[in-house]
Amino acid sequence: MTAGLAHDIGIGVVLATGLCYVARLTRQPVILAYIAAGLIAGPHMGFGWIHEEKSLEVLGELGLAFLMFIVGLEMNLPKLLRSGKPATVLGLIQVGGCGIILWFAALSLGFSRLHAVYLGVTGAFTSTLIVVKLLSDRRILDTTSGRLVLAVLIIQDVLAIVVLGVQPNLDNPAALPILISLSKGLGLAAGAVVISRYVLPRLLSLVAMLPEVLLLTAISWCFLVSYAAIRCEFSVAMGALIAGVSISGLPYALDVGAKIRGLRDFFVTLFFVALGGQLARPSGEVLLVAGAFSAAVILSRLVTVLPALLLLRYDARIGTLATIDLIPVSEFAIVIAAIGLKLGHVSQDLVTVVVISMIATSTFTSYLARVDRSVAAVVAGLLRRLGIRGPDAASEAANAEHVPARILILGCHRFASALLPRLKDRTDVRIVDFNPVIVRDLRARGFRVVYGDLSSAETLEEAGIHEANVIISTISDDFLHDTSNATIVRTVRRLNPHAAILATAERRNEAQFVYDAGADFVLIPKISAAGDFAKFLAHAEAGERDLMKTEALEALRKREEILD
Which of 49, 158, 451, 559 ranks highest by number of CB atoms within 10 Å? Predict the structure, then answer.
């Protein structure tokens, strides 16, 4: 490594690190900090501190390869097959619908047909890195909209493989070249899968006890498939993605992915720093076009995602939340644009438009996500005024056979999923949940379920709260939005003063609020878990740890879960 390259890497990494602190404080995606570091240190728009752009770009490509390899490792094919009809339909509608809308938008902005194709494709995909970070920060990964969005992102990862396969022929979109390209891609994927199924398991099992060799073997596999992809006239990114997918089902995949993440994060930082350093100073016209294209991206999500979810019988609130989360243009768009620039398909101005649109849509979403519940409530109200309604709680309740519900369970989350097997033979149990997938699954298992908002007094009345003797709120405040267990308990107590009310809380002070609201018993999971640990401690000190293990395993064997 030359002194100049070491200097450039050091400048890029140190500046990116400093800007990451700023991004953290302002709650912005760190990718924006990486690109900003390149802009500041680059020769075109910054101070010219980075000189060896090409060398930095090569190192950045390693980061891209590792990024795509880990995306492939995490692309669990059985999980993809279980993602179901809603995610598959929504993923296809978003990518297809947004791609067409943005293609027309690009043509209207004066781009050529090939450039319009690139803008349509790049704008159609949603950023996995940014969206997962936003969902995690808001603690809604395990909500209805969160799970749906994650499933859609998995579908998009699969579509990304197709895009990478046909990209070399986008400038000559004749049927035969594209067919040849797809055949090569299928052949490459098939070869990788065959080797990973019959050769790699034995090879990796030999070095499973040697973590360093296991890691080197996996990285070697990544580079071998990437080299094969280059020979087939595909990108390194596509080869790395196929390499990851091909071994994602092996028992070593998670361990390999965990070990490579450090390398990936370092080199991905260099990739985005190099990208920022290569961006030329945009003209006023390019900025206007980028702004118009960003607005078109946001509009395309609104006219594809929200209507699709309403047709799939999701509530307007969930549809709006998913629409907001699926707005950010993907980092994969930058990959496509960068590859297109190398292939001579697109200009530097188009790459600049894509990067600016990713920055603009990511920033817009990060701010909109802070008020997403309020926005969802406004949109749901507007749709109701227009006569557009999602699944209606009253009609859902009317469809359930009218047997008085003596036990009313509010929300079917982890606690309720473990509780329901003990109640499956009872006919006087009714469940209220806001997740249409859970509602459908529970009905298929014979449970009486009402679709509706747990915090809505109207929903609770339709569900028969006045007839219930016991009411259980099973979802902790960490997964409730615009309401809390204390608020729900207060509403329930007002509607049914005589029922026994059970609720949950994660912390002691929260439990006190719920008791003050009128609960008869508040379950605090960590306190219950502490009792189990204390019991084990007593057995262990008495030399009876095998007894408790036997009892625990027997309990697990008998344990039933309604939902995974």
Answer: 451
